[in-house]
Design a protein that fits this description.
The structure is a homodimer. Chain A has three domains: about 170 residues, Molybdenum Cofactor Biosythetic Enzyme, Chain A (3-Layer(aba) Sandwich), CATH 3.40.980; about 80 residues, Alpha-Beta Plaits; about 160 residues, Maf protein (Alpha-Beta Complex). Chain A is built from 13 helices and 18 strands. The N and C termini of chain A lie far apart (about 55 Å). Strand 14 of chain A pairs antiparallel with strand 14 of chain B.
Chain lengths: ~425, ~425
């Protein structure tokens, strides 16, 4: 183990392996989302994954995987195999690998019995197995499940055993395993992940725009990263400091600069979503919303209306693939619609606002290209937003295939509404459109 | 290598390892969907994955991973690292591991140049690297990209190098790698995957219902499997035979029995979707559709209306969270709606059908429980379907939290419509509802 000095804020060189177990994961029946969660969270707190292994519920494979991981890693996170059934082998193989017996942990057995008692059920006999742990193992608490986490040392590596149930693993990783790993790696202090969600900037342009921001942290300790989920981009600042005040001092100038440079393209921060920002803005102006959609087909309404609290803010959604039918549903006077245009979008939004009695109405019209789906298949998108004050509109053209256009038009409509509600320019050029 | 005898139709014991490479995969920045695709496809053709390894773009890790895989596997599928950039190291490390030089493959270089020429572009100099292959390697064609697949032998294992770009990997795996693996494993003949998509049966009940069906294949060769994507369940029959006629002879009785036992719960087969089945049924009766939604908020319309060809079949969608507002939007005579009930759902559907002029109208009303989201949070779902002939309705109650209810209600509405269009009972009990 190459422990680094105290107070170190840069990434540790500790080699960490993630060892995922289970036939369902190995065979691809279950998508291994736990791997990505663990790797991402470790990266965010300055720890680096060096190797990933996946094996099934097979004694020989598990034993070999444990021994190989012990030979190449300083720390190993084992995920899965802590359940009550016979194919859950992690404790057994951990005991075999470390040359100790499995012993009943009375405290954990009582915890499991209590877990069932609180649910007015009797613990099935098979669950007793979950309290059998390698002698001398360090217990790692699982406050929300019956699988007991634990840690043992094999060779020069510390092994952390975590449950396969995602919500139990997430909590154990964040609250228990990461602090132990940071201590092992000699990383002191506190960490925080600051997140910005943007729409309209691609990852490579965001990377250019934010060039050098990390350097604004006094003494370092802030690392920039991106995660693209089209059509949104997530920009992350992984910050570390000796204590919360120190962390804040390092992070604040970087955070402010990211907010300044990404500007109006930031749609939400941290736990916020574009939907929650729109709903908060509507609430703030005692407003309400109606939507009219063509090709997006209700996808915009389906993002906003089912959110808890939206039931009083979302007034009416209308959908039609045909423009004339949409005009009729929205209450546009007959004979008005000549084709998809910014003017038509404004007209539809205005009519729908009147008809539904909402303070705001959003119309997203799409004129799709003809022919079969292909990579340069596109659509012309016209957006109109009517409100008490005025009606604004915007036109855009997107390419990239049918599904890409559908997702892009949905997000563009939501973003135009967000911008309108916040008093920002609705017509700012985005990276995904052709002009 | 434990090669099995010719004509073998059961799973081979060949040990296959999947070795995924790349910093983005290792660090969790990109979700590793390739692993699951490869493992699932192999399982479907009777091949078994025995080990999974993930390493970054690091020479030392790659070399160690190649050597370890060579020591424990009969065949290794390496994914990623064939690109033109300096961090793509697969060819180089393969050459080093096998003790040969990298040599320029003139044929592949011409292929890359041709690829760019057809796009009226000049090949960047860096792409030349993609034609540098370990001396003596077997070329594996990539008809849709510039990354050249190849195979080499290290120890007693055959290594297959595949590109990280999913669509290139999918095609190379199916067309090139799997036939080679089957030959290596001594598996002869042909394979086919028959898929049934169902709604309303959980995996464990489907497993019970289909107990013993594999045994109906004369001489074996058919394997049953499930993949759950709530709210749908996919039931798969992986079939093998010496030739297409033999395969058909083995598969036909199993396929017929699965169709019989799952009955009305099968919503689609193979490439079909519930959406495509609904649209085909509407087309067949020269019909058209309108939808009215509350908590599902347009999610039903958004499943049907954007499909290519739906533009003439989907007439109108209306959304409101409030029942009175929905009734108004659907054209129900004032004062009718007393609350969410099957009668109200019928009334909304009937009014919407009249107003929109569609042959069919689907209304999905949801009365959500009060309070915060929790695991036993539920909703009462009332569905009405109006058509030329009559109006039918159905009531259901689902639990499982807000998002679970939303997804379940969306699928229940689509399935009720499918059943109605196909003349099946709309009110058959499903596993996800409480009565």
């Amino acid at each position: 183990m190459r422990t680094l000095g105290p107070g170190n804020l840069t990434s540790t060189r500790m080699r960490i392996e993630i060892l995922c177990t289970g036939d369902e994961i190995l065979t691809g029946k279950t998508v291994n989302t736990n791997y990505g969660y663990i790797a991402t969270r470790l990266g965010e707190v300055g720890l680096t994954v060096h190797w990933g292994t996946t094996v099934g519920d097979d004694r020989g494979s598990l034993l070999a995987a444990f021994r190989q991981a012990a030979a190449r890693a300083d720390a190993v996170i084992v995920n899965g195999g802590l359940g009550p059934t016979v194919d859950d082998l992690s404790q057994e193989v951990a005991a075999e690998a470390t040359g100790v017996q499995l012993v009943l942990n009375e405290d954990w057995l009582q915890r499991i019995e209590g877990y069932y008692k609180r649910r007015n059920r009797v613990m099935p006999a098979t669950n007793r197995k979950q309290a059998m742990l390698p002698a001398g193992a360090e217990i790692i608490d699982n406050p929300i499940g019956t699988a007991c986490g634990f840690a043992v040392t094999l060779g020069s590596a510390r092994f952390f055993f975590t449950p396969g149930v995602p919500r139990e693993m997430h909590r154990m990783l964040d609250e228990q395993v990461i602090p132990r790993l940071r201590a092992l790696g000699g990383i002191q202090g506190v960490t925080r992940l600051k997140r910005f969600h943007s729409f309209g900037i691609g990852e490579s342009r965001a990377d250019e725009l934010l060039n050098g921001v990390e350097g604004l942290a006094p003494g370092g300790g802030v690392k920039l990263g991106f995660q693209s989920h089209y059509p949104q981009l997530e920009t992350k600042l992984a910050a570390r400091g000796t204590d919360p005040a120190d962390l804040e001092r390092r992070l604040a100038p970087v955070e402010a600069e990211v907010r300044r440079r990404l500007g109006n393209f930031v749609v939400a921060e941290d736990e916020q979503t574009i939907e929650s920002v729109i709903l908060a803005a509507l609430r703030a102006c005692s407003g309400s919303l109606s939507t009219a959609e063509m090709f997006t087909s209700g996808a915009i309404a389906a993002r906003i209306a089912p959110v808890a609290g939206a039931e009083t803010l979302f007034r009416r959604g209308v959908v039609a693939r045909d423009l004339r039918a949409l005009c009729e549903a929205a209450g546009v006077a007959t004979g008005a619609a000549e084709g998809v245009s910014p003017d038509t979008a404004s007209e539809v939004a205005g009519a729908l606002r009147d008809k539904s009695g909402s303070s705001h109405a959003l119309a997203v019209l799409v004129d799709l290209d003809d022919g079969a789906d292909r990579i340069d298949f596109g659509g012309t998108i016209c957006i109109g937003i009517a409100s008490r004050e005025a009606t604004v509109s915007r036109q855009s053209r997107m390419l990239g295939g049918r599904e890409w256009v559908r997702l892009g038009a949905t997000e563009l409509g939501l973003d135009a509404l967000r911008r309108r509600l916040l008093g920002l320019p609705v017509d700012e050029r985005i990276d995904f459109e052709k002009r």
